[in-house]
Design brief:
Helix 5 crosses helix 15 and helix 12 runs antiparallel to helix 13. By secondary structure, this protein is mostly helical. It has a 3-stranded parallel sheet. The chain is built from 16 helices and 7 strands. It starts with 25 loop residues before the first helix and ends in a 6-residue tail after the last helix. It folds into 2 domains: 156 residues, no CATH class; 202 residues, Rossmann fold, CATH 3.40.50.
Length: 443
């Protein structure tokens, strides 16, 4: 397997990887733009787009939609939209049902500290179980519904409420593999969503009478039609094209300013991004490893290498520590989806990439190659980035330390105030602001 000589990405990255003559992937080359572009000018470009949108709408009310979760970059996006751009966003949340209590607390705190309205889609549990069993059996994916809902529901709301502008955070396909330059100002499209976000699977592909999935069942995941989008003028911008994206520093600003809650993750050193979901950095990530031979820890270490906070050798050490770690959340998922471990393994095992995995005669799988074998490849030193700071991720105090977070929480209170039972009245937990420590959420 070919690996980038600067970061840790393999040639079999599902988004597609291109290498230059020096063995550096296009994701690393596009990332160099972050230190070259005039970001003040980029922000002015975004402000002009926002002003033009406001003039076109010509009315009061919500002037954009922001898709949010109880993790990831939601706080920073809303902060930028509301406090930097001066907009009045409608927050839109797709409930994937895999919620942690930390994620529900973060989502409630988000609505409270920014004083925003939130529209949430919570589908019937039995429907999502049928769909998840089907996507596991047919495509080896337990997360299709989570991604499809997150990438579809905000666009449906935009059409329904005639709010033409959707503001997303980072463009993941450019951030990881350099699919586009920041200057391309690429926007959200149905094609991009399907081909990359949803691994080529449309909602209509799931219709299967034997699996009990009818056309009406997949409607929540059907992207609006072109004539609906054109009537409203829907467009989706990515902030990362206009703001120098540094997820770690952005999260730390949100922790200090608004009380964002971080949490230890099973299979990566990153404690900021996947706190809302029991499986994103657990079982879902392990499936990614079983398919492609790499996982989220590679994504996170690669980003820190490019931002000059981590040496390539440090990133490889993190991969060695986390990548093969067995997830602890498998029983939780199997109980919910009503499958046995054997059924689950049968759905995933044969979807391994033959370019990276080989099966022995006794049925055991082994990696043909990994980044661990490429620490000292020829040319690595020639393209190395100098490290300019250390990489330390913070763990904030748990807002409810006596409340175990070991099961799904379908719903929680959507805001926090002094009337919540058990509200903290004495000392604020470390890392939380005076505005938030006085309030606590009860389930």
């Amino acid at each position: 397997m070919i690996y980038c000589k600067r970061c840790l990405y393999p040639a079999n990255h599902p988004y597609g990887t291109v290498f230059d003559d020096n063995g550096v992937c296009m994701g690393c080359r596009i990332h160099e733009e972050k230190d070259m572009l005039d970001w003040r000018a980029r922000l002015l470009t975004l402000e002009r787009i926002v002003q033009s949108n406001a003039q076109r709408m010509g009315r009061k009310g919500f002037d954009c939609i922001v898709p949010v979760t109880g993790g990831g970059d939601s706080y920073f996006i809303v902060h930028t939209v509301k406090n930097v751009l001066g907009m009045n966003p409608l927050l839109v949340n797709y409930n994937a049902h895999y919620n942690t209590k930390a994620g529900i607390r973060n989502l409630a705190n988000l609505a409270t500290v920014f004083d925003c309205d939130v529209v949430t889609s919570t589908l019937a549990p039995e429907l999502l179980k049928r769909i998840t069993r089907h996507t596991l059996q047919q495509y080896g994916s337990m997360y299709w519904q989570a991604l499809a809902g997150y990438l579809t529901f905000p666009v449906q709301v935009a059409v329904r409420y005639r709010i033409p502008l959707i503001i997303w955070g980072v463009h993941p396909w450019s951030e990881q593999t350099g699919m586009f330059s920041h200057l391309d100002e690429v926007e959200m499209t149905e094609r991009c969503r399907k081909e990359h976000g949803l691994i080529g699977i449309s909602a209509e592909d799931l219709i299967d009478t034997k699996a009990g999935i009818a056309r009406c069942d997949v409607q929540p995941f059907v992207y609006p039609y072109d004539n609906e989008l054109e009537t409203v003028g829907v467009r989706g911008l990515y902030l990362s094209n206009y703001i120098r994206w540094d997820s770690k520093k952005q999260h730390e600003l949100m922790i200090d300013t608004y009380g964002y809650e971080s949490a230890v993750q099973q299979r990566t050193f990153n404690t900021y991004e996947d706190v809302h979901c029991h499986h994103s950095a657990g079982l879902h990530d392990y499936i990614k490893f079983l398919k492609y031979g790499y996982s989220k820890v590679t994504d996170h270490a690669t980003r820190e290498i490019r931002l000059k906070r981590m040496a390539r050798e440090e990133g490889i050490a993190h991969v060695a520590r986390y990548t093969e770690r067995k997830p602890e959340d498998l029983p939780l998922f199997l109980d919910w989806v009503e499958m046995t471990e054997k059924d689950f393994n049968d759905c995933v095992e044969d979807r391994r990439d033959p370019n990276i995995w080989v099966k022995s005669l006794n049925g055991e799988w082994a990696q043909k190659d990994s980044i661990l074998n490429h620490a000292d490849d020829e040319g690595v030193e020639d393209v190395r980035l100098g490290k300019i700071e250390e990489c330390h991720y913070r763990i904030t105090p748990i807002a409810e330390p006596k409340s175990p977070d070991n099961e799904y929480l379908l719903m929680g209170r959507g805001y926090i105030d002094k009337y919540n039972y058990g509200a903290v009245e004495n000392q604020p937990p470390g890392g939380m602001t005076p505005r938030t420590w006085q309030r606590k959420i009860i389930y």
